[in-house]
Write a structure and sequence with these properties.
Layout: H1 5-13, E1 21-22, H2 33-38, E2 47-51, E3 54-58, E4 65-67, E5 71-75, H3 85-90, E6 94-98, E7 108-114, E8 120-121, E9 130-135, H4 149-156, E10 161-164, E11 169-172, E12 182-185, E13 199-202, E14 209-216, E15 221-228, H5 229-249
Antiparallel strand pairs: 1-6, 2-3, 4-7, 5-6, 7-8, 7-9, 9-15, 10-11, 11-12, 12-13, 13-14, 14-15
Length: about 250
C-alpha cells in the first residue's frame, strides 16, 4: 500500500471552514492539559467527544488524546476553493485563518488497547498498547471493506500471493522492496457482499506498521488501527474483533 500523505495534507489544508478569524494569536500546544481542556477532556474522568456524526463516550479508564486543527485555508472572497492551495496563495486569493477548538468535538481522537490485559483500555493518553484512531472523515483511500475496494483490487493485480492460513490472511506481495504488501482477510466469516474480505496495507518489512481502517458512512467517522505487521500476523482475529467491539461500546445511541 502506498500511503499518499501529501494528498491527505492537501485535502485537509484546502477545506473551506466558515466562521473563522484571521490568525492573530498563538495556537494551543497539543498533548497538554490546556489543549485537552479546550476539547472538554479531563483524564481519569468520563469524557464525551463528537467525532463526525457520532458521539463517543470514553470511560474514565481510557486515556483519550484529542486533536483538532487550529488553522485552515479559505478563499478571501468566500467563493469555492477550486485551485490548489499553493496556486491560490501565490495568486493572493487564499488566506490562512484560525479555527478555534470546539469543546466536545474533535477531528481525531487516539486511545490505546492493551493486548496483555485482554485489550483493556490504557489510561495513558500517550501509549500503552495498540493505537486506535477515530477520525471525523475518511482519511486517504485505506478502507478496503466499504470504501475504495476498486483501488485495492487495482493495487494487487498481478501480484504474487502468499497464503497465511494460521492468521486467515492472504498476502499480496509488493513488486518493489520499498512498497508495502497488501493483505486480505480471507476467513469465510469475513467475506462481504462484494465477494472479498477486508483489505489493508502495511509498510515494508516485518516490523513495518499496518494501517487498518473502517469507514462508517452512517456515523460519519472512520477508525483506524495502527499496529506492527508482526503483531497482525500473530493476532489478527482477536485484534480485529476486540477493536470493533470496543469502538461499538463507546458509541452513544
Amino acid at each position: 500500500m502506498r500511503i499518499k500523505m501529501g494528498c491527505i495534507v492537501g485535502l485537509l489544508s484546502t477545506m473551506l471552514i466558515g466562521g473563522c478569524d484571521r490568525i492573530g494569536s498563538s495556537e494551543l500546544s497539543s498533548n497538554t492539559e490546556e489543549y485537552w481542556a479546550a476539547h472538554g477532556i479531563v483524564q481519569g474522568q468520563i469524557n464525551e467527544l463528537r467525532i463526525g456524526g457520532t458521539l463517543f463516550r470514553f470511560p474514565a479508564d481510557v486515556g483519550v488524546n484529542p486533536f483538532s486543527y487550529q488553522s485552515a485555508w479559505r478563499s478571501k472572497d468566500g467563493s469555492p476553493m477550486t485551485l490548489s492551495t499553493k496556486e491560490g496563495v501565490d495568486r493572493g486569493l487564499y488566506e490562512k485563518v484560525a479555527t478555534p477548538i470546539v469543546k466536545g468535538k474533535a477531528y481525531k481522537a487516539t486511545f490505546h488497547l492493551d493486548p496483555a490485559r485482554g485489550y483493556a483500555p490504557s489510561p495513558n493518553p500517550y501509549g500503552g498498547g495498540i493505537a486506535v484512531e477515530i477520525y471525523d472523515r475518511q482519511i486517504g483511500t485505506w478502507d478496503g471493506v466499504n470504501a475504495h475496494l476498486e483501488g485495492h483490487l487495482k493495487e494487487i493485480r498481478g501480484r504474487e500471493i502468499i497464503e497465511h492460513p494460521a492468521s486467515g490472511l492472504r498476502e499480496y506481495v509488493a513488486p518493489k522492496s520499498w512498497i508495502g504488501p497488501e493483505f486480505e482477510d480471507v476467513r469465510p466469516e469475513a467475506k462481504k457482499a462484494s465477494g472479498y474480505g477486508k483489505f489493508f496495507g502495511c509498510q515494508p518489512g516485518p516490523t513495518g506498521f499496518c494501517f487498518i481502517s473502517y469507514w462508517n458512512a452512517a456515523g460519519g467517522y472512520q477508525y483506524q488501527i495502527v499496529v506492527t505487521r508482526e503483531f497482525v500476523m500473530d493476532h489478527w482475529s482477536e485484534l480485529d474483533l476486540a477493536v470493533a467491539n470496543f469502538v461499538d461500546s463507546i458509541i452513544v445511541r
